[in-house]
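Posted in: Structural Biology > Protein-Ligand Complexes

Title: Requesting predicted complex, zinc ion in pocket

I'd be grateful if someone could produce the 3D structure tokens for the following input. Sequence and ligand are given below.
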Amino acid sequence: MPELPEVETIKRELKNKICGRKIKDIEVRLRKIVNVTPQEFKKRLIGKQILDVKRRAKLLMIELSGDERLLIHLKLTGQLIYERPRGASLRGRQEIRDKKQEMRGKHTHVIFYFEKGKMLLYNDLRQFGYIKLLKRDEALRVIEKMKFGPEPLDKKFTLEIFKEGLFKKARQKIKPLLMDQSFLAGLGNVYASEVCFYAEVNPQRTGSSLKDGEIGKIYEGIKEILQEAIKYKGSSVDTYLDIYGRKGGYMPHLKVYGREGKKCLRCGVKIKVIKLGGRSTYFCPKCQE
Ligand SMILES: [Zn+2]
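-- Reply #1 --
Done. Output follows.
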């Protein structure tokens, strides 16, 4: 599932590409992805201008004129792909062009058309994602109801706030807790494992068992790892692609996730995998004793 760095990458790229554009037409190929009838979806959106693109946790919000808002959650396999007209400004880049043509296919469920043939595709192999069309106030209410925890890269997310949150959920295991969206917004299975490795903390430790220094390291790890991952435009551990159809570049920088049986980069002991809260959890049995 795309996590904070992947969704943030998509947000930044979208902002760059679609802000100011007007929606010329829309095709809804799979009804269940949107929350209203395709007729209403089109009626309310065609002619509207994209004003801004925001992110809260793993949720994208597109702001449009006329007080319309689109809330987009990619869930497991959602992709947003921005396409230029075939051939244009892709001279000699046949490979990219072929890849893009592949992208518009049976898993393309919604298409937004802009001027000059530009378009935004919503692809979703497993179809768990959604696009909700709401008025501004409704959208804000929906987001509020989701009760997201603090944004980890926000200045307001201080070590004190982190400690307070941990104190309230002291009996929970740290790795599933880091993935709990009401505790902290945006972390999923990949980056929660990486943070525990960074802090040399066993993912099964409870909040109450953590020493001050360990809490400090976890806090530092969250900020560092997320910032680094954004710099590399995320990780493509499954189907994640950015809006240009490119994989994230952070994969080679993952230190523990997906490295079962390989040597720990810190001590050389073999990385182990266990199930924790139903999710594969990678850790070094020595560094993260
Ligand atoms: Zn180790």
